[in-house]
Amino acid sequence: MIDPVVTVGWLALQTDVRLVDVRWYLDGRSGADAYAAGHVPGAVFLDLDEWLTATPSPEEGRHPLPGPERFAEGLRRAGIDDDTVVVAYDDAGGATAARLVWLLRVLGHDAALLDGGLQAWPGDLSTEPSVPEPGNFSAQPWPAEAFVGIDDVTGAPFLVDVRAAERYRGETEPVDARAGHVPGAINLPTTGNLGEDGRFLSPDTLKTRYAGVGIHKASEVVAYCGSGVNACHALLAMEHAGLGRGRLYPGSWSQWAATDRPMET
């Protein structure tokens, strides 16, 4: 399997890669409109809300896992086959595109984030939409070992909250029902995986970052965020660092905060 993070230079050497634009904005701006205004030439747009999540609800959270068939249909529409190598990007350091990459990788499919995202693209952007021939991506069940439900979240040796520190501390909460974090969680914001240039830190530097809180094996980690999207970025960062694969709590804070379960600030 390819590394979960690849460079523009690596991409330039490939002859058969499906490039996917997965821009999405918490403030309600349209990722589709952003794509139409300018995207990496040849990239196809994949809507996170339509294909990478199920219908939101307080019981399941803002971005529940999509059903396998819904996920597969979205990928087929994006021209992705069972053997297509996928490289995804956004304009937020990979924080949104990570959802697609993570879901593909847990299914054993070659997929990676474009390091630096849209901002790293050295050439002109295109406004011509890419409409590929439908692919043949097969629906596959989600592997249970890659995910943790709400009743088992606090049983992990390391529960990592990847939201901004002020949300973790409960000082602000722009979208979910309560402000705070799951009891026992430690805070390692996704932004800490990136350097000032918006690219991932080196694997050794990432390894040191996680070792600083005692994490040496990702298999001991459950990651969550607001809705199960940005947490995938941290899981890919750990894999990029050579720590292996952790687990995702898909419901994340949006699900937990909608219950009367205890929380901390």
TrEMBL record:
<dbReference type="InterPro" id="IPR001307">
    <property type="entry name" value="Thiosulphate_STrfase_CS"/>
</dbReference>
<dbReference type="Pfam" id="PF00581">
    <property type="entry name" value="Rhodanese"/>
</dbReference>
<keyword id="KW-0677">Repeat</keyword>
<keyword id="KW-0808">Transferase</keyword>
<keyword id="KW-0670">Pyruvate</keyword>
<dbReference type="InterPro" id="IPR045078">
    <property type="entry name" value="TST/MPST-like"/>
</dbReference>
<dbReference type="GO" id="GO:0004792">
    <property type="term" value="F:thiosulfate-cyanide sulfurtransferase activity"/>
</dbReference>
<feature type="domain" description="Rhodanese">
    <location>
        <begin position="13"/>
        <end position="127"/>
    </location>
</feature>
<dbReference type="InterPro" id="IPR001763">
    <property type="entry name" value="Rhodanese-like_dom"/>
</dbReference>
<protein>
    <submittedName>
        <fullName>Thiosulfate/3-mercaptopyruvate sulfurtransferase</fullName>
    </submittedName>
</protein>
<feature type="domain" description="Rhodanese">
    <location>
        <begin position="153"/>
        <end position="265"/>
    </location>
</feature>
<dbReference type="InterPro" id="IPR036873">
    <property type="entry name" value="Rhodanese-like_dom_sf"/>
</dbReference>
